Amino acid sequence: MVVLHFIVVGLLLVILQTTLCMRTPVSFMAPDFYYVLVAYLALRLDMLRGLIVLLPLVCVLDVLSGTILGTYALLCFGGYFFLRQLAVKLPGNEILYHLPLISLSFLAVSWAVYLLLELLQPGQQAAWSWWKMLMRMLLVALCSYPLFLLFDVMQKYSQRSFLSWSRLRLRSDNRRRRT
After folding, report:
1. In this prediction, what percent of the chain has a pLDDT beyond 90?
2. Is residue 115 within 8 Å of residue 15, measured between CB atoms?
3. Is residue 164's pLDDT more than 70?
């Protein structure tokens, strides 16, 4: 149930980002909601569930963005595995430890993907601008805290059982055995 809820919320975030927030794929005032979800999946869920949620979201994001196919897959999977490796070394599971980590990893992974694409296809994409990427990094940091709270509530809600198994338990007819 957790995987299904995160896929639906992730699809809604991707659609919100690509239709309302992004006028162009390189617009600098578009918050990257997908990266906050990638960070949440890397920091709070186990690897199998995180990758199951991430695969359809990356496919939809790649198709809806209109950039070079695979760019967002590199960003998402690179960020996921990078954050997953760094999360092992963190002392706690508090969001205040994670906010700078998420924003700096977004900047590092975006820069690495840009360099890789520049090596493969020089001159085919927009030039790297530090102030634009710093603005996007700041937007990721600002969106992280409220979205992490929303994802935490959603995870608690989806892990809750709809049927209470204690109510369905059959009782024996022997009164002396019941305690």
Report:
1. 28
2. no
3. no
Q: 157-164 long-range contacts, Cβ below 8 Å, gap at least 24?
A: 157/5, 158/1, 158/2, 158/4, 158/5, 158/6, 159/1, 159/2
The contacts of residue 10 (CB under 8 Å, 6+ apart) are 34, 37, 53, 56, 57
Q: Does the residue 175 lie in any domain?
A: no
> Does residue 173 lie in a domain region?
no
Residue 85 exposed, middle or buried by CB count within 10 Å (0-12, 13-18, 19+): exposed
User: Per residue in 58-91, pLDDT tens?
Assistant: 988 888 776 777 888 888 999 999 999 988 777 7
- Give the range of the structural domain holding residue 39, as residue numbers without chain letter: 2-159
24 pLDDT band, cuts 50/70/90, is low
**179: in domain:** no
Within a domain: residue 134? yes
Q: Where are the alpha helices (DSSP H) in the chain?
A: 2-16, 33-44, 47-65, 71-87, 95-120, 130-159, 165-168
pTM higher than 0.90, yes or no? no
| Measured distance CA(35)–CA(76) in Å, rounded | 7
Tokens of 10: 């992730």
Count of domains forming the chain: 1
